[in-house]
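FORM 7B: Structural annotation worksheet

SECTION A. Query
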Amino acid sequence: MSATGQTKPTNRLADLLKARGWTERTLASQTGLGESYINRLKNGRVSSPSLVTAGKIAKALGVTVEEVFPLQAGGRRG
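SECTION B. Predicted structure
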């Protein structure tokens, strides 16, 4: 957690959405996931989505799972 009590996202979701001009609603629509879930994931309140979920997000964004959810030290995903 940061000094403000917020967790730091361990994914690049916010950057990828911004680069495409997409909103959380757009990604939710493209993946069938809930907009609130996308928000929690983007803001680091959900750290480890399932592989299926990660795949849906990556496919919708046109990138690999690793580009959205980079591996951290020890081989764990963010």
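SECTION C. Observations
The two ends are 14 Å apart (CA to CA). The CA atoms of residues 30 and 60 lie 6 Å apart.

SECTION D. Sign-off
Analyst initials: ____
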